[in-house]
Amino acid sequence: MRIGLRKHFSIIALFILPSMLIVGLFMIYPLFHSIYLSLTEYNFVYSEKPQFVGLGNYVDMFSDPEFIIATKNTLIFAVCFFTLLMIVSLAIALLVTSGLRGMKTLRTIVFMPVIVALSLTGVIFQWILNERFGVLNHVLELLHLDVLTRNWLGDSDVALFSLVLVSVWRYTGIVMILFVAGLQAIPEDLYEAAKLDGANWWNRFVYVTLPNLKETFVVTGVWGAMNSIKVFEQPFIMTYGGPGSATTTLYFYSWRNSFEFFEMGYGSSVAYFVAILVLVASAINIFILNRNKHLA
Amino acid sequence: MSRWIFYAIAIFTGFLFLAPFLWILLTSLKTDKDIYSLPIRIFPREVTLEQYIGIFQGSAKLGIYFTNSVVVTIISVAAIVLLSSMSGYGFARYRFFGDTLFIGFLLLVMAVPWAVYLVPIYIMEFKLHILNSKIGLILPYIALNLPLAILIMRGNFRGVSKEIEEAALVDGCSVMQTWARIMMPIVKPGLATVFIFTSIQVWEEFMFARTLITDYLNWTLPVGITMLRNEAQSWAFGTLSAAIVLCLIPLLVVFLSAQQYFIRGITEGAIKG
Predict the structure, then answer these.
(1) Inter-chain contact B174–A115, Cβ cutoff 8 Å?
(2) d(Cα A249, Cα A256) in Å, to the nearest integer?
(3) Mind listing the domains of chain A with CATH numbers?
């Protein structure tokens, strides 16, 4: 399995060391340094050096009203975005694999938003969702749906949800592709057998399609969880966390603390809180899917 | 009957996803008067290229941002492809002290949100005086993208049967020659995947670029465009739209001509990641 090592030792070093060095210097070391920083109070501009405060930052977080709001926003965003993303992506994936004509084109079109930089997407949609000059409100008016027009990014009741919609537009393509791959891996005979047993399309979906997508759900679930919680560009570019704090997400809040207020100790602990949330969400996702596996 | 419903849904969906592109394109072809007229006109009264001309006449800055992005992306991606194919090969074929540990670290650092690394990297670059420099962006970009790239290439190399290599080594090829002349051509699909995936990631990266670059002349394109929007407030969307279209066209062309590689990149990247 492994080719002889000793005589090639220096070559191995040449092949592996540069990568290890760069990753070590710019990821592994920062990882430990940031853990340390999260346990300190450190204002980059004013502090001489970091002051160790143990878990002080983590305690302070929970009495910080902005932090509580950010957590609430992040959770609301995550749940809405994740659910919508999964449903829309799966639905489109089903459509794309249904054998209708022109589905390859549809697949391409739905995937196109993925290659647009997220920041540019933010700028584009700021324009579309503009209250006075935005085309969305204009189209709604044309369709006599005036009652639906809103100040999409300026109304604190809707702003977060607007970000959800933009994110769904941007990310559906990726998840759809993953579902398409999963769907295409399901053997046709399973569907044939089900049809022979008299199953209608709903039954076929629930009893053949869904169980066979378990692996795909793990991948899309973990990916979706990560991108539901690590939300930075959308609030940063479209609303800068506003109006007020209506669209401040934890990830964004962490950045503001570190690079706007320069409280790098506190910012680091918020960043770790985000990391923990992502970990928990992924674990829950994997756990739910694996538990059902035993029953199936 | 139901087929027509599905076709209708498909067309409607396609339109929804395509609409923002169309809108930005249309906006970029309108005069300022058309853009800001109320009620809004969807189609331009007269198609004009004045917005595009305006970009080049006005601030030449956009050209600088574009160049910055190109330089940073090319160097980062080249380094990532090279280093990941080298390390991927090393990890796939050779056992050495700490190799499993390092792979474990790769998986670990991939799971952590990138913002966590930003603060220490910022402090480190500040002390080393490489903040606000291209190398100050390139090195983190390489580091951030290497783990996934290494895992992808490692997977690719493992999939190759060893007979070819062993034959080459027996024939007197050095490891370097074996790797370069024989193994690399075999794993071309993997290289393409890493190349495309990484190019997109680096090109559109925003948070690190916005934080680590402090002088406006060094901004990358995504940062530059958002900053242009800032200073223009609400009345330069014409120019902005034209700039965005210019940004999108190269990427769209590449994408449309190499779709399967993009798609494979996603599936492979997600599954291995």
Answers:
(1) no
(2) 10
(3) 1-38 (no CATH), 54-295 (1.10.3720.10)
